[in-house]
Amino acid sequence: MRFAQYTAATALCIAASFAAPIAERQAAITDADILQYALTLEHLENVFYKGAISSMPESDFLAAGFSSAYYNNLKYIAHDEEQHVELLTSALTAAGAMPVAACTYKFPYTDPKSFVTLASILEGVGTSAYLGGAPLIASKTYLGVAGSILVTEALHTSLQRFNLGEVAPANPYGTALGLNPVYTLAAEFIVSCPSTNVALPVMAFPALTATQGIPAAPGITFTFTTTTSMPSTFFVTFVSGLSTTSVAGSVEGGMIVATIPATAMGQTYAFITNTNVTSSIMDSMILNGPAILEVTPPAPTFDISEM
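Given the sequence above, the corresponding structure tokens read:
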């Protein structure tokens, strides 16, 4: 009960903090848009976790090599995602907006192992979404709340990665993704949405698919596929942590081929771009993607003398 009261109070505080600037920023993406966008992603995660827990008992996870401790943490994650949905829904309602409802989804997992693998990817995308959306938020109050959710999503990501045997902190820095790249990835799991849902100011890019097994490694040749034709000159741009690195792409045997750069570590996003990106990637540069690949990080190095 105390938590419910706190959630309602927080939602009212958020609503008050962003309601005033909305009218002044009609031509741009508003904080209300960001709330609806975040709620769309949280609905997806909420349904994803509840569906797995309701369809696969703890015994299935134990038989697949996961521990009771992991399954217990899985229930906590489901609780977290539900709380995120309730907070964002309350904030939008308090601000006089109609919150988007959950959509119908399809998730390609068939057993606990494939579920945990997909959970790791989705949590990584969720973390990237909050990190990329933060600069668009006008309200400092809501920015603080978004930062709080970001921390929780990052904890979820680390838990899933660790239980897959991956390096949990594979990159010293988080990887930010813009609204459209995140929506491109989320749209793969959305079958349909209620007609009453407000239209989001986002679009999906043509898909790009990583065709090789994971994990990958820097310096190896990696292949991708897409249903669209490639221009005569294009680049495969890898976004990982604070690094954005473009390499020349080519088409061989119907596959898009590129070499993974040394800057790629952990969950990495690959785009087909029309230019050699030397700073932040912009939507106008993107032709396809992102695709997601897991890149094994190099061995850790540190100077013990700096103590």
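The first strand starts at residue 104 and ends at 105. Try to locate this feature in the token string yourself.
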